[in-house]
Amino acid sequence: MQKVSPFFVILLLLLACSPKLKDSIQEGGLTGEDVIAMSIREMGGERKLKKVRTMKMVATKKVHIMDEVGKDYDVQIERYIKIPDKLLMKETSKFGTIITVLNGQNASIYYPNGKIMPITGVELHDIKETALIFPELYMDDKLYSTENMGVDLIGYDSVQIVKVTYPDGNINYRHYDKTTKLLHHLSNDVYITGYFFGDYRTLNGIKLPYYYGASDYFTWSWDIRVEELEVNPALDDSLFDMK
Question: Is 215 helix (H, G, I), strand (E, B) or coil?
Answer without folding.
Answer: strand
